[in-house]
Amino acid sequence: MRKLKNSELQRLNIEEFKKAQKTPIIVILDNIRSLNNIGSVFRTSDAFLIEKIILCGITAKPPHKDIHKTALGATESVDWEYIEETTEAIKRIKKLGYTMVSIEQTENAIELQNFTIEAEKKYAVIFGNEVKGVQQKVVDQSDYCIEIPQFGTKHSFNISVSAGIVLWEFFRKQKL
Questions:
Q1: What residue segments make up the domains of the chain, in order of their start?
Q2: pLDDT in tens, the chain (176 residues)
Q3: What backbone torsions phi and psi does residue 45 show, to the nearest 5 degrees?
Q4: Beta strand 98-103 pairing with 110-111
């Protein structure tokens, strides 16, 4: 086996990305404090042709060198906007017909592998603060809560890891 060169990967350029049909998913970042996590979510969102990212609360906005460090240019390809209140972002997105899904450990949360994703539906996936998680008032506005199963001693994944796992699963079930 031979490793492929970047030029052999046939990736889209930014103009092609902007014109490409997007995965009907909006990512909402609810008070993410780490700029590296924000950048990583941009990069993952680029990989799966995510429609848009909405940054809320204390979540920093591009351009910022620490976001760029992990986004590697994905802030230029993935559409994004800032809405101060996460609850306001949810109200706006719900009016557009999106199903709201918080990634949080709650009573009656559905394990990710058991969540049925309907190809014709549009989803907004909400990731919360690294310490406090998704705000309760945001959970209250959600249609579903999904939990990523874990089997070790820790109680949660890093947000960038959670985003990678969840967005891959949604993409896989919608597109493949």
A1: 21-175
A2: 999 999 999 999 999 999 999 999 999 999 999 999 999 999 999 999 999 999 999 999 999 999 999 999 999 999 999 999 999 999 999 999 999 999 999 999 999 999 999 988 999 999 999 999 999 999 999 999 999 999 999 999 999 999 999 999 999 999 87
A3: -65, -35
A4: unpaired
Q: What spatial distance separates the first Cα and last Cα of the chain, rounded to whole Å?
A: 26
Residues paired with 23 in a beta bridge: 50
Predicted structure pTM score: 0.97
Answer yes or no: CATH 3.40.630.30 is held by domain 21-175: no
Q: What is the dihedral of CA 99, 102, 103, 104, to 10 degrees?
A: -150
The pair of three-digit structure tokens given for residue 140, joined into one six-digit string = 């209250």
